[in-house]
Design brief:
With 124 residues, the protein is an alpha+beta fold. 23% of the residues lie in helices and 15% in strands. The chain is built from two helices and five strands; from the N terminus they run αβββαββ. It has one domain. A three-stranded antiparallel sheet has the order 1-2-3.
């Protein structure tokens, strides 16, 4: 799923991190001069946030001029790599073939209106 909301303050993160039992992976592009790219991951029980390399799914870990790695970056990258595979596994489990979920359509939805149907299929 791709969520695009140019007016979403912090990508609607407050709502995301309150979810319980719902795994998710988020890769959010930066806003030059305001904030950089970052990642969020949740296995449904635990979530984490880390800054990322530009347009990638890898956490950013800074190395100073002295060659030392930023301990703070390691502190956020390590939980990400622990939670990331658990989130992927949760996606795989939910995607296993089985009985399709019940589809609920709200009354008045375009999907119920005859003009949206063509030969029994929904128009894109």
């Amino acid at each position: 799923m791709t969520m695009v909301d140019p007016e979403a303050d912090n990508g609607n993160y407050d709502a995301l991190i309150k979810l319980e039992g719902v795994p998710f992976l988020v890769s959010n592009g930066g806003n030059p001069g305001a904030f950089g790219d970052h990642l969020l991951a949740s296995d449904g029980n635990e979530w984490c946030y880390t800054e990322s390399l530009a347009e990638s799914n890898y956490p950013a870990v800074r190395v100073g001029p002295d060659g030392k790695v930023s301990p703070g970056d390691l502190d956020t990258a390590a939980p990400y790599w622990r939670i990331y595979p658990a989130a992927l596994q949760a996606f795989r489990e939910r995607a296993k073939p089985g009985k399709p979920p019940t589809r609920r359509v709200a009354e008045g939805s375009p999907e119920l209106m005859p003009e949206t149907r063509s030969r029994g299929r929904l128009r894109p």
